[in-house]
Write a structure and sequence with these properties.
The protein is mainly alpha-helical. 78% of the residues lie in helices and 0% in strands. It has one domain.
Length: 321
């Protein structure tokens, strides 16, 4: 029991501590910055965020179609909403396993197909983010050297991963566990490496992250700050790459800190940089939470106990999925 509690409480305390530190260091200037807010931009950022989610659902529908499962846009989007809502509560992206359970319950997918679909989504996300970061780097001054490292590592890893998929097409084995891995690689290749699926997933991923950047741009405009677009792109890139390391639930704290530090490099005052970072993530998380609640109603009452079961099994180290 203590292990389960600690797995949730400790990362949550780290997230709260980071956010508290960010606010404490600029507390005197926060009220001044808040007084200059233009609330209408908050509505715009929320609307853009909803569009990005629908596009995520459309992309996930393409991935599942590559695995021979034809699902509606509503169901594909709802699957992501529920799993990402769970990720806001628990660390280490354990909420992703909820999506595997939902797909198995609704469409009788195998667990390996559920995991493979998430891997495809994550790989395209990481590569697209890193690619946007690489493009934005030359347009931003005073960038710390570690920014380049953080961006290039996933970019190189993504290219190597696709090369690995292409190389191991015809490998067979009698080992059960290696065969499971090879089955997943085959599923990933089938869902992502046909010409049509690769182009569709690449273009949709670019649009998804462009909209994600636009959300932050609208938040910056809320405070009357004309931050160069390349800086906002770089901030979103660094924030999401740091957030990909599952230190806190939903990357809360680490994401905001990364964004704020990047904005400060561009000359934004610490108070405004902090507010932009916090409100950007808050809007995105509120849309996620609202979508997750609606999605649970869409799927039905069985989802909640399934979520509890999935998370309990993973946190407790038990179960066989």
């Amino acid at each position: 029991m203590y292990r389960k509690i600690g797995a949730i409480v400790i990362p949550a305390l780290i997230a709260v501590g980071i956010i508290a530190y960010m606010f404490m260091r600029v507390w005197d200037d926060l009220l001044v910055a808040v007084g200059h807010m233009i609330p209408s931009y908050a509505l715009a950022s929320g609307a853009i965020c909803v569009c990005a989610w629908l596009l995520r659902g459309w992309r996930y529908r393409i991935i599942l179609k590559g695995l021979n499962y034809d699902v509606s846009l509503a169901v594909a989007t709802a699957c992501i909403f529920v799993s990402q809502t769970a990720n806001l509560i628990v660390p280490a992206r354990l909420g992703d396993f909820v999506r595997v359970f939902i797909l198995h319950h609704e469409y009788n997918t195998t667990y390996s197909e559920g995991v493979s679909s998430i891997v495809v989504e994550r790989v395209f996300d990481i590569i697209t983010i890193a690619l946007l970061g690489a493009v934005s780097l030359p347009f931003v001054l005073n960038v710390p050297p570690w920014f380049s490292t953080v961006i290039m590592l996933p970019l190189v890893a993504g290219v190597l991963f696709f090369c690995f998929l292409l190389m191991f097409k015809k490998v067979t084995t009698q080992n059960r566990y290696i065969q499971i891995l090879l089955t997943m690689l085959h599923e990933i290749r089938r869902a992502s490496l046909t010409v049509r699926s690769f182009i569709s997933l690449s273009l949709s991923s670019l649009f998804i992250w462009f909209l994600d950047v636009l959300v932050c741009f609208a938040v910056a405009m809320m405070f009357g700050h004309q931050i160069p677009f390349a800086v906002i792109v770089l901030a979103i890139v660094i924030g999401n790459l740091v957030k990909a390391v599952p230190i806190t639930p939903g990357g809360v704290g680490t994401y905001e800190l990364s964004l704020a530090l990047t904005f400060e490099l561009a000359g934004v005052s610490p108070a405004v940089a902090t507010l932009i970072a916090v409100i950007d993530h808050l809007i995105k998380n509120l849309v996620t939470l609202a979508g997750g609640i609606l999605s649970i109603f869409l799927f039905g009452d069985w989802v909640v106990p399934s979520i509890k079961k999935a998370l309990s099994m993973r946190l407790g180290g038990g179960g066989n999925t």
